[in-house]
Design brief:
alpha+beta; 6-stranded antiparallel sheet; about 25% helix; Insect_cuticle; cuticle; Larval cuticle protein 9; CHIT_BIND_RR_consensus
Length: about 120
Amino acid sequence: MKFLIVFACMLAIAFANEEANVLRSEQEVEPDRFNYVLELDNGVLLEQQGRLEGDDVWTVDGSFKFISPEGEEVGWTYNADDTGFHPDPNSKWIHPIPAHIIKSIEYIKNHPSQE
């Protein structure tokens, strides 16, 4: 879980590409849940919420957005749980996700492994 938070922060810094001032930084951390928001004046916005499900399974929902060098707002939403990281295929990425990949993701989502 800590890795995901650190990764998101590092990603924000990598995409900032300039000196950026913090407009908003909020953190709330409890033993069974957390919430944070980081907003920079260059268009970067990170939001993430997590909650403990049971004894050791975290469910996390979040989003990330930034302004591309072309001036376009780009971002995505995601969730993560004990089955892995699940980005929303309908989010606006830098490059559009090909239709066959979206179809494959939907198929996998609707036909989980029988193991």
